[in-house]
Amino acid sequence: MQNIILLRGLVRESRHWGDFPTKLSKALNNIDVLTPEIQGVGKYIEKESPDNLIDMIEFMREQIKDQLNGNSTLVAMSLGGMIAKQWSEKYPDDFKNMVLINTSFKGMNPIYHRLRPNAILQFLNIFLTPHVALREKKILDLVSNVKAKREETHPLWVKIQKESPVSRKSFINQIKAALKFSPASEKPKIRTLLVASKKDRLCDVLCTTKLSHKWDLPLKLHQSAGHDLPMDDPDWLIKKIKEFIQ
Fold it and tell me: So where are the chain's domains?
């Protein structure tokens, strides 16, 4: 049976998808949408995030291994895209398709494209902001280009952070994992679609366009959305995923 696995980005948990999993499922005839989580977030907030992707993958794979049958589609964004690439290298038979959204890779994309200079300063500011509501607002301002979406989402993100606050150690370990990961330079072994936002203010769209050229993979570009494309324009993204896997 076909299903979809969703992987989020840095220090984000399954609730940060909002209603995207439900919308995606309905658009694909009520397909099962799974949202496994890494250590240190969500249901596993009491655990510490590891500083490498392999341990994250093994932890998530254990959560859904009974539902992996080689016909799954892996949809991942940002840090989740790095995890997805590593997962597809280690367990290529787990998935049939892969969709990578606004991601980048060490060795293939320069650091100043992977994390844009202005975003580095904003990250430092966010890290040093103690007030939860203000910190989540700053994160939303960085990753979303749609004011109405930011305002709608802010209460949920504040609620998540208050209920399941990610420790600074886990935050730092996830950054370490992202910075250390060097994927195989070869094209992914499974069928892959690249998706990116041209107006992404966190990760330069050049990261994805370069991967598309290097690996000769199809690329879909959104003209106005921010880094969190599933938030800014879920209907557009769902349409592209649906077209790709069907």
Answer: 3-245
Q: Which fold has domain 3-245?
A: Rossmann fold (3.40.50)
68 close to 93: Cβ distance less than 8 angstroms:
no
Question: Which pLDDT tens digit goes with each residue over 4-31?
Answer: 999 998 889 999 999 999 999 999 999 9
How far is Cα 83 from Cα 154, in angstroms, rounded to an integer?
Answer: 26
Q: What is the pTM of this model?
A: 0.94
C-alpha count within 13 angstroms, C-beta hemisphere, residue 150: 18
Token pair 């886990």 in the structure block, residue: 170
The DSSP-derived string for 107-169 is: TTS-HHHHS-HHHHHHHHHHHT---HHHHHHHHHHHH---HHHHHHHHHHHHHHHHHSPPPHH
Residue-wise DSSP of the chain:
--EEEEE--TT--GGGGTTHHHHHHHHTTS-EEE----TTSGGGTTSPPPSSHHHHHHHHHHHHGGG--S-EEEEEETHHHHHHHHHHHH-GGGEEEEEEES---TTTS-HHHHS-HHHHHHHHHHHT---HHHHHHHHHHHH---HHHHHHHHHHHHHHHHHSPPPHHHHHHHHHHHHH----SSPPSSEEEEEEETT-SSS-THHHHHHHHHHT--EEEESS--S-HHHH-HHHHHHHHHHHH-
- pLDDT value at position 115? 81
